[in-house]
Amino acid sequence: MTNNICRTTVTTIVGGAGRGAEAMLPAIQEWNNDSERFTIVPKYADPVPGRARQLTKRAKGMGISAEFSENRVQELITTNESANAFPIVLHVDRPGAIAEALLAAADRSLPVLGYLLMRLPDTTLVGAQLVFQEHENDQKLAAAAMFDELSQVTARSGTAEILGDRGRPEHLLAEPMYRARFGRHLQQNLRKLVAGLEPESAPIEFTFDGQDSVWTGIIDNRTGWADPIQLAGEVLERAPLIIVRGSDFALVELGPRGQGLRIHRVHYRIDGRVSMQGTLLVDTQSLAAAERELMQRHAAEALRRAVRATISRLEPIFTTD
To answer: 304 lies in a domain?
Structure first.
């Protein structure tokens, strides 16, 4: 057990006490063991009766001082309990709840860390990881808009479909890599946040393999969809961080309201040009575009690809903490 003498105790409200929060316990334990200045005390907020209490017991069994509350994390953020919380950590499995928590954190200018697994209609497993400083409220609001859009097309049985009995074997095998990536992200950025320094990671990052993560920008195109290549080029010119040639990044394009969003994977080539690695999550209008392509190219495979890549209530995504 860690010796806490002369250390500053930092209480952080953790939204969710499910699989994701439990998987992060070793990272918190290691962080506390290595830190010479701070001791993290997670306070788990989960409205499911008994779940936060049980996770608190498991945390204490690992030498982690912990507390719990049977409330939604949004409720704790909006009360005085968030005054001394630093930062908020989100392990919530519903995009809508993440959006609400981000809006509340922006209202109170609180730092936030967050993690979510998403299985897209084409079976791609994507990990989203977030880190926002106190003052980065515009970024929190942009992320909230993204998760709100995702909530409109997210099925309810997320955990069972991704990591449960109905999960795909390759996702179950890959889960430890994604969890380890999330753990490294928390350790690296929590160290900077509690010290008042700029985080190591970008505010929003996606990982498509559980190993490497890429900067992810959110583009609001509510009036219509943009040409992906042109959009990527424009983003490069005004990106909030340096994107070096030869690296990858992702763009989340929020289209007209009610039509979903698109996730573009982009490669910034050595020659200064951009190439698209694919649009993984698209709006329902892309199905019509694929049908036109089918007529032009007389290839049924184009339509099958579009159906697999189209997100709607008939082809929802699944999410889990």
So the answer is: yes
